[in-house]
Design a protein that fits this description.
By secondary structure, the chain is mainly β. It is built from five helices and 38 strands. The strands form five sheets. The chain has a 22-stranded antiparallel barrel. The protein is globular and about 80 Å long.
Length: 752
């Protein structure tokens, strides 16, 4: 490690003295031939951008020489994307934008080649957190369910984890701040653990991404893009407040960011508090309350051929664990049982740019502390607020420390080829301090090597790659042999070769075809290997299997995508074959009141897809009509259905947008959405079917200017008809507890 830091130190000072270069130019409209003001001009690989002045001119300085992607985007115009060669001194580029009624495209960050979505070989879904918030989402885990093919396993409203095409938990890898998020995500009752405040957008890779990310990306990746720094030589700030009628919930956050020629800084703080939610039958779900504190800050520096940024996120949450319908009040302090979770996330991203290549080194450290407080038999009033239980010790107290690294060497433009080679890995330590031991004290070490390339032709692209991974897990002996809770010593090694091949082609002028073939793998986690006791969060006695094998899968994805100025259409289909799929099922026995569940393996298959369109009729520029349908089926080789597979879903949205109407009214929107969730009768042997339901949502937003101050106002009503329903992916379904009823969000945003 000393040698690595010495190398970084040397390269930093060597490249910091290199020549400084500039990019200047103009942006004009193809339709009117007039300059465009406030157009975003951005170099994604350098993470540096600006906006055009009133004469359409832009200027970017302190740039390294080399070949880079440039993107120019502006509402009402097709996003411009090209590769430019920056030479020593000043480079000039004049950009012409063509009109388009379809929304602006963004650069995909979760894949390494800095492409727009339409240019990417792998289909990646992207959504801004702002757009998810406008749909009425209470949490980030709730918001991502508005992306086709993505759902979440929920425990009330405060705990949710992503499900991508029927796969979740350790089969879906979450990335934040450019590093993998490790927070004991093996449990269904363990939530996402990330606040939406300070997250700019969400990207979803739906399918095996082990080539890029290694183990745990077998089912896909949820990639969270952090808030960007302010544009060069500017300072921005904002205050945001949201109120939720159902839970009497409040969510507030404020941020400030400033950027100079070389240095950049930002900070954002957030607070969230919700009382118990009320279901459609007007009953409050006891102990579904939660509160959260979040702080995100970052500092960046860029000079010529060197760029670095350091980010830190502190997230502290108190989460009630609902189990039954009991006390009916609006208290905010969690009752027993509840979780107390603290996450410290530190990331360091460093880039060096050479004339014909670049080097990226990303380092991360995450400290996750999870405590669970349970009811004690001698407690006379188990519904007493936890703050009165001053002597209460956590039954479960786990500390997880993870150091991760990702080193990638990038060689673009060798003819038609673009190469990336890299080494990734992590070292992880799990420690127990509580009375109960769910998983043993253990050390996990990962290392993976990869090589991937992108080949560009005039009307098509090919992407291919290979990767080898090794994971070692060493667990300590816990408990007394022969007694409940005993865990034997564990020493296992898992390895896997994986490959991916993708092809993208322009079938017609506006029609894109994609086919991707990819393998993936997942090493079994500590819970699956070592469990031997009651898992209180699930109310079951779990027995692991130390002899479990890797899960290995092979998935085929086929996608068609049509996009014109006024109409978009997509159709995605997939078939996912998983060997040695690990799942848990009851064996019919009981230990006390808790049913016994065993971790076992069997081959499985998942298949389905998504289809949808977006219609923007001419000349009705203010009207948007969107519709999507998603379906997934999961079966074991014995023809039994897999558990926790989401029901088929049809979503229809009518949206109206309007521009400036008065001097005090600049922009606005209104929408109505009907989400139809179908009956789920394809269930595992220990599940029960779930009835379908319909949720009607309404929304309205306005941007006002009052006394020279911009103000954003939003009102969103979710489940406006107060439907009483239970989601098939709700962990409270077994207790016949309904999901949240009517909820109206009122939002206020004030830029400073």
């Amino acid at each position: 490690m000393k040698a690595l830091f010495s190398l970084l130190f040397f390269i930093f000072f060597y490249l910091n003295g290199s020549a400084q270069n500039a990019l200047i130019g103009t942006v004009t409209s193809e339709e009117t031939n007039s300059p465009l003001e406030q157009v975003s001009v951005y170099l994604p690989q350098l993470e540096k951008g600006t906006v055009t002045k009133n004469n359409g001119e832009f200027r970017l300085t302190n740039l390294p020489a080399g070949s880079y992607k440039i993107v120019a985007s502006f509402m009402g115009y097709r996003t411009f994307s090209a590769t430019i060669l920056l030479t020593e001194g000043t480079t000039t580029l004049n950009i012409i934008l063509s009109p388009s009624a379809i929304e602006m495209e963004e650069v995909i960050v979760s894949t390494p080649f800095h492409k727009l979505q339409r240019e990417n070989v792998m289909k990646v879904e992207q959504a801004s957190v702002e757009s998810l918030r406008k749909m009425g989402a209470i949490t980030l885990a709730d918001g991502i369910t508005n992306i086709a093919g993505v759902e979440n396993v929920s425990t009330g409203i405060g705990i949710g984890k992503p499900v991508i095409r029927g796969l979740s938990s350790n089969r879906v890898l979450v990335y934040t701040q450019g590093i993998r998020l490790e927070n004991q995500q093996f449990g269904d009752e363990h939530g996402l653990g990330i606040s939406a405040a300070g997250i700019e957008s969400v990207e979803v890779i739906k399918g095996p991404a082990s080539l890029l990310y290694g183990s745990d990306a077998l089912g896909g990746v949820l990639y969270l893009n952090p808030e960007q720094f302010a544009i060069m030589n500017s300072t921005e700030g904002d205050i945001n407040f949201n109120y939720f009628t159902n839970t009497h919930g409040i969510n507030a956050n404020a941020g400030l960011k400033t950027s100079g020629e070389k240095f950049k800084f930002l900070v954002r703080g957030a607070y969230t508090s919700h009382a118990d939610y009320k279901s459609g039958n007007d009953v409050r779900v006891t102990n579904s309350r939660f509160r959260e504190y979040d702080l995100k800050t970052a500092v960046g520096y860029q000079s010529g051929k060197f760029k670095t940024e350091l980010r830190y996120n502190l997230n502290s949450s108190d989460l009630g664990i609902p189990e039954e319908i009991g006390v009916q009040n609006l208290g905010r302090t969690p009752l027993l049982p509840y979780q107390e979770i603290n996450n410290h996330i530190i990331s360091s991203k460093n880039d060096w740019f050479f004339n014909k290549s670049s080097l990226k080194i990303t380092l991360g450290y995450i400290y996750n502390q999870r405590k669970e407080f349970e009811e004690e038999e001698e407690e006379e009033d188990p519904t007493a607020p936890s703050e009165s239980l001053t002597e209460l010790e956590p039954a479960l107290d786990m500390d997880l420390s993870t150091f991760s690294y990702n080193i990638q060497y990038n060689i673009p433009n060798i003819g038609r080829w673009h190469f990336i080679a890299g080494i990734q890995g992590m070292n992880q330590t799990n420690k127990n301090s509580g009375e109960e031991v769910l998983i043993p004290d253990a050390k996990t070490a990962d290392i993976g090597v990869l090589a991937t390339s992108h080949v560009h032709f005039e009307k098509s692209d090919i992407q291919l790659g290979l990767r080898f991974d090794n994971r070692s897990i060493k667990g300590e002996e816990t408990g007394v042999l022969g007694e409940e809770g005993y865990i034997a010593q564990l020493d296992r090694n898992f390895n896997s070769f994986n490959a991916a091949l993708g092809y993208r082609v322009d079938l017609l002028a506006n029609l894109i075809g994609r086919i991707n073939l990819a393998s993936g793998f997942r090493a079994p986690n500590l819970a699956e290997l070592t469990s031997n006791g009651v898992h209180e969060g699930t109310n079951r006695f779990e027995i692991g299997n130390p002899n479990l094998n890797n899960e290995n899968n092979f998935q085929t994805d086929i996608a068609l995508e049509y996009g014109s100025e006024h109409f978009e259409f997509f159709a995605n289909g997939f078939y996912n074959k998983i060997n040695d799929y690990i799942f848990i099922e009851p064996n019919g026995e009981f230990v006390g009141p808790n049913p016994v569940y065993n971790y076992i393996q069997q081959d499985a298959n998942l298949y389905g897809g998504e289809i949808g369109f977006h219609f923007h009729p001419h000349p009705l520029d203010w009207l948007h009509i969107q519709s999507s349908f998603e379906s997934v089926t999961g079966r074991l080789d014995n023809d039994d259905y897999l558990p926790l597979i989401p029901a088929n879903k049809l979503s229809n949205t009518l949206r109206i947008e309007f521009g400036t109407r008065k001097k005090w009214l600049t922009n606005g929107y209104t929408f109505v959405t009907l989400n139809s969730i179908f009956d789920q009768n394809k269930v595992a042997t220990f599940e029960t079917p779930t009835e379908g339901y319909n949720l009607l949502n309404l929304g309205l937003g306005l941007n006002l200017k009052l006394f020279k101050q911009d103000i954003g106002l939003e009102v969103t009503a979710v489940n406006i008809l107060n439907e009483d329903y239970i989601s098939h992916l709700s962990r409270l379904k077994v207790d016949d507890i309904s999901n949240i009823g009517r909820n109206i969000r009122m939002g206020l945003s004030i830029p400073l």
